[in-house]
Amino acid sequence: MNQPTRDADRNRTLTEQADPTTEKMLLPSLDDGITVLDVEGGRDVPILQSLVLDHLLLHDGPAFWVDANGHATTTTLAQIAPSQRLLDRIHVARGFTAYQHYGTVCDLPTAVNQSIWRSTADTGISSRQLTARNEGASSHTPSLIVAPAVDAQYRTDDTLGDAHAGTLQARTLTRLATYADGYEVPVLVTRSKADEFAAPVATAAEHHLECEQTRMGPRFTGEEFETLVYPVDDGAYYQTTFTYWRQLLGARAEQVGLEPASPSTPTTATDGVGTGVTADGTIASLTANPLLDAWTSAGGR
After folding, report:
1. Beta bridge partners of 187
2. By C-alpha distance, which of 60, 83, 15 is closest to 185?
3. Residues 134, 7: Cα–Cα separation, whole Å
4. Where are the alpha helices (DSSP H) in 44-151?
5. What UniProt keywords apply to this chain's record, in alphabetical order (predicted)?
6. CB 193 within 8 A of CB 184
7. What separation in angstroms does the CA of 237 have from each of 26, 138, 144, 166, 213?
8. Is 176 helix (H, G, I), strand (E, B) or coil?
9. Which one in 56, 104, 133, 232 has a CA-CA gap of 20 to 30 Å to 250?
10. Is-contact 144 150, C-beta < 8 A?
């Protein structure tokens, strides 16, 4: 019986293809420095884990994960990861209080040194080193640092006052920025809330990714990335964002000397997931059922 194809398997297959145009169709790449990921419309655990695994598929070296609020759950990691060997490259430490979280971040260089010592001393692991996809990479030094819900422990610790909680959070962010520069790796962080207390997280970040949950899958937007297509099993691609079609039709209208028509005011959806343009050019509310969308947009015919 044919087993369903996992997303990570599909990502690994597509990234190994010779066609470079497929690389930017999947998940956004993580650049060196702190990147803050904000997810709307659902829990961010699978999205965060997918970004981490996708990065490890493209880069050698382990990932060091300072966990909070159960983001490093092995249930979804095992479902998404294409192999157990990939999971072996993720080192997780957890802090259940603000001081534990800060102490774990401070101890990260020690954990990195211990990991390097073990990996270089174990000839079995050394013989199975992967070929580095990025120049200058090493299979022993970190390739990624992850700190999800980096503000969570500092905002909920009852033993800290507001001023002390903010100071300790700032020190954590400073440490993470130092590691990003020292190891020359991406540091991926998330916020439990995008409010005033977590504003220093966005200030410390050099890059910002936003993820919106859509009925076709997660849609990422960033400084140099925007999800426009989604791959399917037969190798084709579904175009799901109206931005692409608006750009395409706008260019076509300019070619033929026509001005694009101004869209009408969208109707209000009671339990929908957004709006979309129908075949006759009107904007209709979309529900979670594509067949229902097609039926109602055609006037029930």
Report:
1. 34, 145
2. 60
3. 23
4. 45-58, 74-80, 84-87, 98-106, 108-121, 123-126
5. Plasmid
6. no
7. 11, 34, 29, 45, 18
8. helix
9. 232
10. no
Question: What would the pLDDT profile of 233-245 be if each residue is shown by its tens digit?
Answer: 666 777 767 667 7
Domains in the chain, please, with CATH?
29-119+138-218 (3.40.50.300), 228-258 (no CATH)
Structure tokens at 194: 């995008």
Do the beta carbons of residue 176 and residue 34 sit within 8 Å?
Answer: yes
pLDDT in tens, 269-292: 444 444 544 445 555 554 444 433
Q: Read off the tokens for 244.
A: 């692409």
Q: In sequence order, what are the residues at sequence separation of 6 or more whose Cβ sits closer than 8 angstroms to the Cβ of residue 100? A: 94, 153
Cβ atoms within 10 Å of 275's Cβ, excluding its own: 15
3-state secondary structure of 66: strand
How far is Cα 273 from Cα 34, in angstroms, rounded to an integer? 31
Task: Mention every residue, 6+ apart, whose C-beta is less than 8 A from residue 227.
Answer: 218, 219, 220, 221, 241
